[in-house]
Amino acid sequence: MNVYDSARMADVMAPLGYVSADSPAEADMVILNTCHIREKASEKVFSELGRLRMLKEERAREGRTLSVGVAGCVAQAEGEEIQRRMPHVDVVVGPQAYHRLPSLLEEAARGQAGAIDVDFSASAKFAGAGEGAARGAAAFLTIQEGCDKFCTFCVVPYTRGAEFSRPVTDILDEARRMAAHGTREITLLGQNVNAYRHGATGLGELIRRVAEIDGITRIRYTTSHPRDVDDDLVAAHRDVPQLMPFLHLPVQSGSDRILAAMNRRHTADDYRRAIGRLRNARPDLALSSDFIVGFPGETEADFAATLALAQAVGYAQAYSFKYSPRPGTPAAEMAETVAEEVKSERLERLQAVLNDMQLSFNQATIGRTVEVLFDRPGARPGQSIGRSPYMQSVHATGAARGTLASVRIDAAYNNSVSGEVVSSDPTVPFGASDGGERRITMEGIG
Length: 446
Ligand code: SAH
Ligand code: SF4
What we know:
The chain is of the alpha/beta class.
């Protein structure tokens, strides 16, 4: 979501003459787009701000300027502390107020040190979304924001606010503009994307509508919640060929006791059943999840249930984290904390299992020919990187950026596969022209 939000910030800054820069050293303005989900993510913001202060001072000695902004959830949650501890920060802008960046910058330029907007009135920030520069062959589109679920460990309901679904017509307009700019794959985004509902339209129906847009050949959505997998969404997996056979469906834990303490409001069996319905509809569906280890009160038996669930489901990839207490959340007050070394040891064991699964999944695609949308340059000359339908990173030579190609997979690694281009469907390669005079970098911190 921060990647999408950074693209939106670049859009609203474009009329002021800002274009993207590759690094802070060549930028006139640096915006840190921040994540507050775990403690480590927010700590990084303060150390990065320290580095930017030095850069700003260096510039001042040369008689030049550098504007510094902080955006995202750390700005939302700790905006005032940022202003107090980091007076060199010009602008603090919460995730619902990006459209106000230009006026905040103006305020800062008029000497109102530390212009801040952490207002929660959603939606205005989406005005004109998609009118900016081309976003890439594969791009994000936010359809829903916020969360009403209040898992006991999570700051999202506090930093991103209540659930809000964008109107269908706005989303389709933005998707059409993206298609016209050459985007082939759209990932529909939301903190709780399958809670999307506008009028009578839920996510399944929205996916069907997006699939009707000329030029959009692939659709994905993230992040979804196991409780909101309704029949219409399951049917979309069966009926919509553009909907890719990959789903990130976080479970967090395999223990019902821990799931209850997390307030996930589903059991491990509910989760397995949701997966079963989805796999019935789309047998080749590849899955991914998030896991938290060391939640307060987690015993070895609870953790064993998590390992067992992971093994029973079989994931193509997954993310796993040590529980990180977040101030203001109910879990942060829970007494039975798990020792740091136990957390580390469990994380290692879980990651070993998940890495093995990921490698086996990648190996199982050797010899198959899959459609790959190439959207990034590779490390070697002539090499490009793209995504398979199953979200694997695919490396191949001879495929132009922005093209969809059939690739025969011939080698598998932990985090990627590689193969040979069998045939490709040339489309307009990507690359917006530069030419503005002011440059901006959006540094994602998370
Ligand atoms: N809405 C999504 C998740 C959004 S947060 C869902 O409900 O699944 C992304 C991931 O960060 C979560 O799935 C969780 O695994 C992790 N996470 C959130 N808060 C955390 C915390 N306090 N400590 C460790 N991991 C956390
Ligand atoms: Fe956080 Fe996801 Fe739970 Fe919402 S559903 S509180 S975003 S983990």
